[in-house]
Amino acid sequence: MTNLTTKDIPRLLQAYRQMVTIREFEDNANELYLTAKMPGLTHMYSGQEAVAVGICEALKSTDYITSTHRGHGHCVAKGANLKLMFCELLGKEEGYCRGKGGSMHIADQSNGNLGANAIVGGSAGIATGAALRSKMLGKDDVTVCFFGDGALGQGLLYEVMNMAALWSLPVIYACENNMYGEYTHVDEMAAGSLTARAEAFGIETHRVDGQDFVAVNALSEKLVARAREGEGPFFIVLDTYRYHGHHVGDVNRTYYRSKEEEQHWKTERDPILLLAEVLVSNEWATQQELDEFKAAIKKEAADAVSYALDAPYPDESEVDMHVFVD
Amino acid sequence: MRNITWSQAMNEAIAEEMRHDETVFIMGEDVAEAGTPFKVTSGLVEEFGTQRVLDTPISEPGFMGMAVGASLTGMRPIVDLMFGDFIYLIMDQLANQAAKQHYMSGGKLTVPLVVRTNMGATRRSAAQHSQSLQALVAHIPGIKVAMPSTPYEVKGLMKTAIRDNNPVVIFEDKLSYQMKGPVPEEEYFIPFGQANVISQGTDITLIGTSSMVQVCEEAALILAEKGISAEVIDVRTIAPLDEHTLVESVKKTGRAIVVDEGHQSFGVTSEIVARLNEQAFYYLDAPLTRMGAMDVPIPFSPALEDLTVPTAAGVADKAVKLVTGER
Ligand SMILES: Cc1ncc(C[n+]2csc(CCOP(=O)(O)OP(=O)(O)O)c2C)c(N)n1
Ligand SMILES: [Mg+2]
């Protein structure tokens, strides 16, 4: 357990704010889907907030991340604006990608988010290439590659981890082990040890409770600092859980995971409740303050949604724009 | 005749062939208990067990390669590739390994496998889950490509695909899984390389693949109201391609629009138009015309996505122009 002091209060409150923002964002996205206001499907990050926030709070906005199909959390944690995110989810012109990418392709260049990805494991090369660039130019930026346990099945990951290790690249592979890839348990998809996969390349690996912001953040601070010094790459398995279905439409889940299991994580292992507990038990915040915090974020998210709902769609002339750079 | 959904028809085709031949098996992501995200393979694992209905990790190139190896050594694998866009991941195994074995071995090795996958936009799935990549596959010598248009077609073509001794890729429009249609109880097969003339006409031939067949049929109805008689043809398989039926139709009508949901440039439509040009040129009354998806990655926004694919109204408009000679 990390020793926290009053110096940590602003950081913890900031993390609390970010985690609640992600949860609110996702609850609104789900509602947009259920009320048929959002085109297509989306994958919720709820339950995994401490992973994205714990890691991204250790990064500067000039550091890079690559994200996944379950990417809203990474995007918020890296500093994105809710209005522009909702606009993207609704296919509006003001969205981060002018409505062309949607939920699965949000990228926020201004904050170093190189983009969500609809190909499982598809961003492993991109992340490692960004780290290669940092090394080539002598920059001290770090790149974090987020991916799920399911992506451990993809060969690309092993090719690039090998090169990252050979060339000591400043990249951190963050495997969010929420125990399922779609409707299949990780034990049925990944043989042997998860961490040994990276150890085989001589990469230093860690495993951490992904529900515990304090633990994730403490580890991330250390590894990011070391990666800046050229000690990378690193590999982390973060044990976590997704609260919703694989995507918003996956509502009947009992054939692959039990209601009891879901309930256990939501009530006993919730990252937001766990951080609130740290804040309240140390008397660094009262429950009432946290509730007020939450109410303000709720309002901010609701405003962003109505803003996005009213925002215009892109003009038809945009359809063949951006195929090539002019 | 009973009406069943596309998913049921595909499910029956797989189940019947697995009963018929115990070397047939299916592998892919979430094909067992989950029955695929589109619920197409539901019930198969209960009947055939996990030895023949294999849930794989998310390792497309790996399991595609294993299917090649299993088929070279006597099995008849069905590879379930969840989205057609993942063709890019399996391309080496498909093109360099599966497609060439028979030829490279001087006819000694065979690769009797089927890849069942999908295609089609307008599902708001964005650029990496909306592509129609059949032209890419049809470009490779040694692979057959089926493009079913209805539940009846998918069952008959899938059964033929499984019995074929070559690698076959069958593309299903992902918006069709719930489509209902008449499918006989009795066993039947639809041979490859035989296009289906759906309706006879005299003024123009509308040639479609997959769901573009419905687009052509709808366009024909619009044209009928305007007094234009369109002949509609379902290509069924683009490799092998039934040139004869298409050429004979165009010789009769003197005009054709070819509609396919892949990108228009270097696409299925280009290939068919080129062959018609070579064989029916002297019978033509108007330029042979292609209609494919726009040459852009499929955008997410509904406001843009719907512009990228051919529609019945668009096909009908174009047909009117060709028939009346208006530019
Ligand atoms: C290459 C590839 N194969 C399959 C899919 C379909 N798919 C989307 S998400 C997913 C599961 C991913 O599991 P995991 O990596 O654990 O991420 P999680 O959804 O749990 O966040 C699958 C199979 C895909 N998008 N890309
Ligand atoms: Mg997972």
Please supply descriptive tags for the structure shown above.
heterodimer; A: 326 residues; alpha/beta; Rossmann fold; five-stranded parallel sheet; two-stranded antiparallel ribbon; 10% strand; B: Rossmann fold; 2 domains; five-stranded mixed sheet; 14 strands; binds thiamine diphosphate; binds magnesium ion
Instruction: Compute the number of strand runs of chain B.
Output: 14
Under CATH at level 1, the class of chain A stands as Alpha Beta
- CA gyration radius of chain B, whole angstroms: 20 Å
CATH architecture of the largest domain in chain B: 3-Layer(aba) Sandwich
Helix and strand composition category of chain B: alpha/beta
Helix fraction of chain A, binned, reads: 40-55%
Q: Are there runs of chain A of 5+ residues with pLDDT below 50, and where?
A: none
Strand order of the largest sheet of chain A: 1-2-3-7-6
Total domain modules of chain A:
1
Percentage of residues in helical conformation of chain B: 25-40%
GO molecular function (chain A): pyruvate dehydrogenase (acetyl-transferring) activity
Pfam families (chain A): E1_dh
Cofactor (chain A): thiamine diphosphate
Domain Dehydrogenase E1 component (chain A): 17-315
Notes on the protein architecture:
The complex is a heterodimer of chains A (326) and B (327). Chain A has 11 helices and 7 strands. With 326 residues, chain A is of the alpha/beta class. Chain A has one domain: Rossmann fold, CATH 3.40.50.970. A 5-stranded parallel beta sheet of chain A has the order 1-2-3-7-6, with helices on both faces. In chain A, strands 4-5 form a two-stranded antiparallel sheet. In chain A, helix 1 packs antiparallel against helix 10 (271-281) and helix 2 (49-56) packs parallel to helix 8. The longest helix of chain A is centred in the N-terminal third of the chain and has 26 residues, at 9-34. Chain A is globular. The termini of chain A are far apart. The mean pLDDT of chain A is 97. By secondary structure, chain B is α/β, with parallel strands linked by helices. Chain B is built from 12 helices and 14 strands. Chain B has helices at residues 6-20, 44-48, 60-72, 87-98, 101-104, 134-138, 151-163, 212-225, 243-253, 268-280, 302-305, 312-324, and strands spanning 3-5, 24-28, 53-55, 76-80, 114-119, 144-146, 168-173, 180-182, 196-199, 204-208, 230-234, 237-239, 256-263, 289-293. Chain B has a 7-stranded mixed beta sheet, sandwiched between helices. A 5-stranded mixed beta sheet of chain B has the order 9-11-10-13-14, with helices on both faces. In chain B, strands 1-8 form a two-stranded antiparallel sheet. In chain B, helix 2 links the parallel strand 2 and strand 3 (53-55). In chain B, helix 3 (60-72) runs parallel beside helix 4 (87-98) and helix 8 crosses helix 12 (312-324). Chain B is globular. The mean pLDDT of chain B is 98. Chain A binds chain B through residues 39-41, 91-92, 97-105, 117-122, 150-155, 181-184, 188-190, 255-256, 313-314, 316, 318-320, 323, and chain B through 29-30, 33-34, 37, 55-59, 61-62, 85-86, 89, 123-129, 294-297, 299-304, 307-308. The structure holds thiamine diphosphate and magnesium ion (MG). Chain B: Its cofactor is thiamine diphosphate. Chain B: This is 2-oxoisovalerate dehydrogenase subunit beta. Chain B: Pfam families: Transket_pyr, Transketolase_C.
